[in-house]
Amino acid sequence: MSVIRVTEILATSPTSWEDAVDNGLERATKTIRNVKGIDVRGWKAEVQNAKIVEYRVVLKVAFEVEDVPGS
């Protein structure tokens, strides 16, 4: 039986929402093992002078909880 935990992160990109999602997943997998899926929960953008200067996404990252040896 596996246990899945979900954590929420905010990721950004100066290029696109898709790139923001990729950046978030790449960064999450540096510190979270056993990532099983992501759910994009929100799309936002910062606008300056009528242009998007930063794309932002809210991601729910699901990962499998590891057993601690000896417990």
TrEMBL record:
Domain of life: Archaea
InterPro entries, per database record: Dodecin, Dodecin-like, Dodecin-like_sf
Pfam family, one: Dodecin
Name by which UniProt lists this protein: Dodecin domain-containing protein
Organism: Nitrososphaera viennensis EN76
